Amino acid sequence: MNAHETVDSHNSQSNAQTEARRDLAAAHRLAVKDNFIEGIDNHFTLTVPGAPDRFYLNAFGYHWSEVRASNLIEVSLDGAVVAGKGIANLTAVCIHAPIHRRGVKCVLHTHMTYTTALSQLEDMRIEPSSQNGVVLQDMIAYDRDYNGFAETQDEGERMANILGDKKILMLANHGAVATGDSVAKAYHRLYFLERAAMTQMIAMAAGKQRMITKAVQDRIRNSLGARVQITVPRSACISMP
Fold it and tell me: Using 50, 70 and 90 to split pLDDT, how confident is the model at 224?
């Protein structure tokens, strides 16, 4: 590789990192708008382009409306802050790092109202009583053992193992994790998970749900093309500074 190619490669990686920071910061602020937050708690992470052993994380203590591309910190998979100023929340590291180790790029964890309410039920499954429920159903893994705050890598590894090759992890008595190979895809799943949980909880409170028939479920899945694999344009996650 000559000097010109080296400079071009460095510039390309630098640009990718800038865009990654903007996307992740945008997701935090979009979560404020969508009311997915709990003040300064919960966490969104994204693998640093060109550095798969690091991820961007919102520094602990910022309200999500204050998160900017410039104040995200870079954290190693063992929890050390390697760039930026701020504290890496222990729970964030313990939940997210094991999932990133498996090659997942974006990991979003929240305690969204309806999803978290559903996670407190004995049967916390997203059911095929809505179109959103059908679309998401095959993407979801369920962790039915709440063990308190996730403050060890072992607990995070346990969660990551349950997630497996699914895209969403429902956490009993806790909330959910949504993942994707981009911020846009992960946030898209997070958003529609909450919508599915919301309409399901309202329907359950109103009376007996009417489930979508198996034939219609199959038709919905087939119409999605690649077996419930969601394709979301990058523009779906509004970029902010």
Answer: confident
CA distances, 229 to each of 167, 181, 187, 198 (Å): 10, 12, 14, 22
H-state helical runs in the chain: 3-33, 90-101, 113-119, 131-137, 153-163, 183-206, 214-223
Half-sphere exposure of 64 (CA within 13 A, CB side): 22
**pLDDT attached to residue 1:** 54
How far is the C-alpha of 75 from the C-alpha of 87, rounded, in Å? 10
pLDDT the model gives residue 228: 42
DSSP 127: P
One-letter amino acid of 128 = P
pTM comes to 0.89
Instruction: Specify the residue for token string 């499954």.
Output: 125
CB 200 within 8 A of CB 210: no
Report pLDDT for 241. 36
- Candidate from 110-119, 191-200, 231-240 with smallest mean pLDDT: 231-240
Cβ atoms 163, 107 nearer than 8 A: no
Q: How far apart are CA 213 and CA 16, in angstroms?
A: 44
Name residue, tokens 């390697």.
Answer: 82
- pLDDT tens figures, 160-178: 999 999 999 999 999 999 9
H or E stretch including 55?
strand 51-58
Contact 96, 57 (CB under 8 A): yes
Instruction: In whole angstroms, give the CA distance from residue 103 to residue 17.
Output: 17
User: By the 8 A CB rule, do 176 and 168 touch?
Assistant: yes
DSSP classification of residue 126:
P
What is the C-alpha to C-alpha distance for residues 112 and 178, in angstroms, rounded to an integer?
12
* Amino acid at residue number 125: R
The 3-state DSSP class for residue 129 equals coil
